[in-house]
Specification:
alpha+beta; Alpha-Beta Plaits; three-stranded antiparallel sheet; 24% helix
């Protein structure tokens, strides 16, 4: 095992999990690991697919950030919430 710690950075954020699924699959298919943060079941339970109060954030290793942004065709000026 390596003693290196991975620094994770926010790549994108979405209102609901289903909105992030395509990006997750695209990144993982290219070998880029993804952490999903902000999922909550809330009062509706885990089957709820709509927006959540905190939204969903996708994080990638800092070393893979540029590759991930290119792969997802994100603008350089675009922040993690999709706004410039």
């Amino acid at each position: 095992m390596s003693d290196e710690r991975v620094e994770w950075v926010v790549l994108t954020s979405h209102a609901a999990r289903y909105m992030a699924d395509l990006q997750i699959q695209t990144l993982e298919s290219e070998g880029i690991p993804v952490l999903v943060r902000g999922e909550e079941a809330g009062i509706w339970g885990p089957a709820y697919a709509g927006p959540t109060s905190q939204g969903i954030r996708l994080l990638v290793p800092k070393a893979a950030l540029t590759e991930a942004r290119i792969l997802l065709e994100l603008d350089d000026e675009e922040g993690p919430d999709g706004e410039g």
